[in-house]
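dumping this here before i forget
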Amino acid sequence: MKIYFTNVGLFKRGYIKKVLEAGLEYLGQPTGQLEVSLSFVGEDEIRELNKEYRDTDKVTDVLSFPTVDNPERGVIDLASHASDLNPETWLLNLGDIIICLPRAKQQAKEYGHSLKREVAFLSLHSLLHLLGDDHMNQADEEQMTAVQNAVLDKLNIKRNK
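structure:
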């Protein structure tokens, strides 16, 4: 998986990449054939994005902007997206992940766990949105939660650490 980072320190890049790749592997996705962009922004920027794209004028922790339609939430069929491949890398770009780092720091403190755990969770959560998952009803939320917990547990990224 190729990740285009913006405003993300070198230390965080390694574990974010590990988390996203583990999520893709867990779901049976073609890990080596996908790419995403991931940015850390401040509260003002995420509020503007949330207002512009979701018509919600407030700060949020993470936004996802998918570029691939995957309504069945299954394994991405690269053959059906051949015309969508990045002509420079020949990888399929799933979309953009934008994390509000100040909000992530605040939530880590509130939940009593590390910033690493919070950023890992938000990154994975957003990746699942890029793959078509949502949490608009209880069953979908439970499914997303189960995947998130399984991947983070496998990587030993636990709450309260």
